[in-house]
Structures are given as C-alpha cells and as structure tokens.
Design brief:
elongated; 12 strands; alpha/beta; Uroporphyrinogen-III synthase; 2 domains; 4pyrrol_synth_uPrphyn_synth; five-stranded parallel beta sheet; about 250 residues
Length: about 250
C-alpha cells in the first residue's frame, strides 16, 4: 500500500487527517504551510477601510482570508462591495459578515472557481473603478496583473503570512520507500514545498506519485513539474478519505 500524504493546511486538513487515521495506519499529515498574523499590518488595514469607504471592490481570495478579516474587522461599512474567487470563500464571507449583501463570485465547485473565472465574471458585470485585493503575503498575481492591464487600480492588502513547513520526524519516514505516495495538496505553493523537501535524489521517485488536487491551474503546474498521475477532485468532496485510501491500495 502506498503512503497517503495529506498536505492540506488548516482545520480542513486536520479533519481529513482524523478521518484517515481512523481508517488506515498508512497516512502522514504534513501541512504545506501554516498561517501567521503576528504582524499588525496597519497599512493593509488602512487600505481596506479607506478602499471600502471609496467604493472599491474588496476581493477576498480564500476562506482563510475571510477568517483573518473577521478577526481584524468585527464589522465593515455596510456599503462595502465584495468579490470572492469561489463559492466556498463567498459562503465563509456570508457567515462572517451577514450584512455583506453584494458578493460577486463564480458559482460552483473548486473545479469551477479561481482567478480566471472571477476575472471573466468581472468583465461581464463591468470592471470596478478600483480593487483592494486581500490575501496573504503571496498569491493571485494573475488576477492582479490582468486587472491592472485593463486599467483597474489594484491595491494589494496582505493580512497574514503563509509559512512553509519543512518535513521532520515521522513526516520523513515515507520518503524514498516503496512506491511513491498518494498526495493530496491544494495549492501551487504546496508543490514547491513538496519538491524542496523531497526532491534531489528522490525527484524521479516523487514524480511517479499519484496526486489529487482541487483546481485545473494546480494540475497544470504539476504536469509542468513532471508529475504524470494527477487527478482533480472537488475541495469539499464527500468521501475524500475513502478515495485516497482506494488509490493507495
């Protein structure tokens, strides 16, 4: 049986790992990164508030971003206009800020969301006069670039950091042993973390892994990096643990 490597960070990754451990002894939990909000991000807070008051479109890029927004802003101006890169983020925003009444987002699963589809939606609805894009310290450069290319002023407002986690201890025991693992990852940053920790002498072995991921852009990046066996799965897929176990057997 192949090892199952769960690289999804945050509470969702922890819940998946609990289910895997209840069903098999062959899983390893190695979240690709952790989140840090030790800085106060005063400038970003100012940009978000002033942007909201000016009528800028506030774009949130993930449920994690929404969570940190709620920590910083118990309330936002009722006039604030929002967009999200997908339905899970929009649902998180609605739960965190019930007064948010105007939210643009691509409807559907994680397979049908992302920066590209949000940009297409903004073109259909009419480009906003200004955007404040709220994210971690990196990410969503495609959306930033295409909006600016269309003449839309974009202010990037980071409110947390994503810190890559190195494999250590039991997280390393599977490297180079037996068949390459079944890997579940949810971002392009996770690919970089995986390769930096497992590459080198084990690079060829790693590229034969079976990888599940949640968006076509991540799948494309995996193919570009030389991974041959990559499947797409919806981010909130029921039975995900069972699917991973089935692939590992």
């Amino acid at each position: 049986m192949r090892t199952i490597l769960n690289m999804k960070p945050g509470p969702g990754g922890q819940r998946l790992q609990e289910e895997l451990e209840a069903k098999t002894a062959g899983s390893v939990y190695w979240p690709a990164f952790t989140f840090d909000r030790s800085e106060d991000y005063e400038e970003s807070v100012k940009e978000i508030l002033e942007g909201a008051e000016r009528g800028a479109l506030l774009i949130l890029v993930s449920p994690t971003t929404v969570s940190f927004m709620k920590d910083i802003f118990p309330q936002l101006p009722e006039s604030a206009r929002f967009a999200c890169v997908g339905e899970p983020t929009a649902k998180a925003l609605t739960a965190a800020f019930p007064a948010a009444h105007e939210i643009l987002f691509p409807h559907g699963s994680s397979l049908e969301s992302g920066s590209e589809l949000l940009f297409e939606l903004l073109l259909e609805e009419g480009l906003p006069p200004e955007v404040v894009l709220i994210r971690g310290d990196t990410g969503r450069q495609f959306l930033i670039d295409v909006l600016r290319d269309k003449g839309v002023p974009v202010t990037v407002a980071p409110i947390y950091k994503r810190i890559p986690l190195k494999a250590s201890g039991d997280q390393k025991r599977w490297i180079g042993r037996g068949e390459a693992p079944v890997v579940y990852l949810t971002s392009t940053d996770a690919i970089r973390t995986l390769e930096e920790n497992v590459g080198g002498d084990n690079a060829g072995w790693l590229k034969s892994a079976l990888v599940l991921t949640i968006h076509p852009r991540i799948q494309e990046h995996l193919f570009e990096e030389g991974f041959k066996n990559v499947e797409l799965v919806e981010s909130r897929c029921s039975g995900l643990a069972d699917k991973l176990i089935s692939l590992a057997e």
